[in-house]
Amino acid sequence: MDDQHQPMEEVLDLRVADPIAVSHANFIVVRQGHPLSDHCRTDVHSPYRLGTSVLNGISGVWMPVIVVPQDYDGPEMYLDVRCGDMTADSALVEQFKITPDRR
User: Fold this and answer.
1) Is 48 exposed, middle or buried (0-12, 13-18, 19+ CB in 10 A)?
2) pLDDT per position in the chain (103 positions), as tens?
3) What does the domain layout of the chain look like in residue ranges?
4) Given 17, 23, 52, 95, which is the most exposed site by the fewest CB atoms within 10 A?
């Protein structure tokens, strides 16, 4: 969904090492430069939240998308995108007030 809560016709290519992690995902982390990132922001030094959400097709949760700088230190990404990790990304969870879905 975009920031006006309208559905978008884009697909996110999300590759994961642990498919089970997708069912528990509550947010998505993309690296600056990924096609979903804001290309108008060229000199990114801090994470920011996009005005779009991504539907988790397994859990039905709409997940926020957090863009991190190129040098962000976190779990491995494939194609500059991954599921957010509530523990490893605890600073992002706190900064963007991400809460786990209780489904």
Assistant:
1) middle
2) 555 655 556 667 888 888 888 888 999 999 999 988 888 887 889 999 998 888 898 989 999 999 999 999 999 999 999 999 999 999 999 999 998 876 5
3) 20-95
4) 17
